[in-house]
């Protein structure tokens, strides 16, 4: 028997009244040392023209008939985000209320956390001397957090975008490198996207 895609299963569960586990789990940031938080220029985290070009090219490829305004609204959240750097990993508290009345609580530490509702991206300070493994973990979490924040309702494309962002991060989203990467993936941006990039990053 052929298995159904996850998105199709979630649609069926929703129709018959079964709650998605992610909807049942409550998530919240645990105590953050706000005194030690430092606001970053998004460009310090490579949130700039190269990253946006890569994302817009990806969106134009998977949804070629999408209107430019809608495509631009997808990336607007990333453009408007406030980046706050912490000294340590960000602690998330996940709670799940069971039918028995018992409450399960799990804490998890992350290098990055995007709180879309308040337009804040919490990031752990990258230790440039932490070794290759630490760097790759940071790159992977950055890619997954950004892709998940933009395409949280589309798991398949979310993972594809994360892979693309991961490759871009490794070259610090250098414009020439991003252009070459997009060429190898047969990605391009529309004229309206170029205009958005030029107006948003006039000095680049």
Secondary structure topology:
Elements lengths: L5 H10 L5 H4 E5 L8 E3 L8 H14 L5 H12 L2 E5 L3 E8 L5 E8 L1 E4 L4 E5 L7 H19 L4 H16 L4 H10 L6 H10 L4
Parallel strand pairs: 3-7
Antiparallel strand pairs: 1-4, 2-3, 4-5, 6-7
Helix pairs in contact: 3-6, 3-7, 3-8, 5-6
Describe this structure in words.
With 204 residues, the chain is an alpha+beta fold. The protein has one domain. Helix content is 47%, strand content 19%. It contains 8 helices and 7 strands, in the order ααββααβββββαααα. A 4-stranded mixed beta sheet has the order 2-3-7-6, with helices on one face. Helix 3 runs parallel beside helix 7. The longest helix has 19 residues. The chain is globular, with a radius of gyration of 19 Å. The protein starts with 5 loop residues before the first helix and ends with a helix.
Mean pLDDT: 83
Distance between termini? 53 Å
Structural domains: how many: 1
Which percent bin holds the helix content? 40-55%
> What spatial form do the alpha-carbon principal axes imply?
globular
Number of strands: 7
The low-confidence runs, each spanning 5 or more residues with pLDDT under 50, are 12-25
- Quaternary organisation of the protein chains: single chain
Tag the structure with descriptive keywords.
globular; alpha+beta; single chain; 8 helices; four-stranded mixed β-sheet; 204 residues; three-stranded antiparallel β-sheet
Summarize this structure briefly:
By secondary structure, this protein is α+β, with helices and mostly antiparallel strands.
